[in-house]
Amino acid sequence: MEPIVDAxxxxxxxxxxxxxxxxxxxxxxxxxxxxxDWFKDLTENGTLTFDEAAEESVFEGLHVAAARLFxxxxxxxxxxxxxxxxxxxxxxxxxxxxxxxxxGTEITFPSTIYPWARVARxxxxxxxxxxxxxxxxxxxxxxxxxxxxxAVVCISDVEYSTGQLYDVAKLAEAAHKHGALLVVDASQxxxxxxxxxxxxxxxxxxxxxxxxxxxPFGVAVLYxxxxxQGKLDPGLVGFRxxxxxxxxxxxxxxxxxxxxxxxxxxxxxxxxxGLTAAIEYLLGIGIDRIFxxxxxxxxxxxxxxxERNAEVVSPQxxxxxxxxxxxxxxxxxxxxxARHLSxxxxxxxxxxxxxxxxxHLYNEPDDIERALDEIDRFVRSEAD
Length: 384
What we know:
Layout: E1 17-18, H1 29-45, H2 52-56, H3 60-70, E2 77-80, H4 83-94, E3 101-105, H5 110-123, E4 126-130, H6 139-144, E5 150-156, H7 168-177, E6 181-185, H8 197-200, E7 204-208, E8 220-224, H9 226-229, H10 269-285, H11 287-307, E9 311-312, E10 325-328, H12 334-343, E11 346-347, E12 349-351, E13 354-357, H13 365-383
Parallel strand pairs: 1-11, 3-4, 3-5, 5-6, 6-7
Antiparallel strand pairs: 2-8, 7-8, 9-10, 10-13, 12-13
Helix pairs in contact: 1-10, 3-10, 4-5, 11-13
C-alpha cells in the first residue's frame, strides 16, 4: 500500500501509531502554518493589515473550499467556531412547535441531539431516538419513527462509536415524504467520506474541523440548502449577521439572503484560514481516494482483530462501512487496553464498551501491525 501523503505534512505521524482521528486529527502542517501566520500578522501589524475589508472577506476562501468539498455553492456555506454552535443556531431557527417531533438515534454523539433537546424544553416538541442493537441502528427502525408530525430528522452521517455510515439520500427521501428536514452532522465523515449534498437531498449539514478534515480547533462549517436560506431567523446573532456588517446600527438587522446569515460574530479567524488550507489539501489528494485507502487499512485491522478472537461490532455491509473500527475483547476492559496502547505510543480510544480505532490518510499498514502486536502484549501481560 503506497503512501498518499508526505510524512512531513503530518509530523506527529512519526511519533506514534496514531489511530485516533475520530477523536482528534493529526493537523496538516499547512493548516497550522496558515493559522499561526494570521496570528503572527495580527501580533505584528494589527489592523494595518487585518483591516475592515480583510475581516469582511476573511471567510471567502473557506466558502469556496467547503462548497467544493460538499458539491454546493459558496453562498450555501456558513462559518462558525464549532459545529455545536452552528447546529444550536439552526435548531433555534427551526424551533418546532409542541405538536412536532425531532428524530435521531440513541447512539449519536450527544452534541448532535442536545441542541434539539434544549429547544424542545422551550417549545415542547418530542425528541424520538431510534434504539441501537449491539451498537447498530437499523435505518428501517429510524425511518419508522418519522411521521406527519416530524419536523426534523437529525443524524450523524457516521456514528462516532462504531463507524456506521447511513444512506443519507434514503433518509432524506423518507424525511421529505413527511415534510421534514434532514439535518446531518458530518463531523465524522467530512474529509474521509465523499459527500454530495446536491445528490443526497440534505437540507443542512455541519462539520467540525479538527477530526477528518485535519484542521485546527476553533472553526466549523454549515451547509444550508438554498430553499432555507431566506427563511430562517438564526438563533445566534451579532454584528456579522447584518448583510452589511460594517453598517453598525443597533436599531435593525437585515440578514443576508444566503447561508451567511448564520455568521454572526468575531472569532479566531486564523482557524478559518487553517481549515481552508486543510480542505484544499484533502481535495488535492481526492476524497474518494482517501476513503478507499482508509477502508483498506480498516480491512487489515479487522482481519487481525478477528484472528485475536475480538468481536468486531462495526458494520460489515460494504455500504455502511468506514475506517472507524470498534471491537470488544472478551473479559477485557477497553479502557485498560487503550491505556496500555497509549503507554506504547499506539493511540486509540475507548468509547462506550468498545475499543475504537480510526485510521486516516497519514496511517500506514505498519501502524496497524504495531497496534495488533501491542494488543498481543497486553493479553500476555494479563495472562501472567
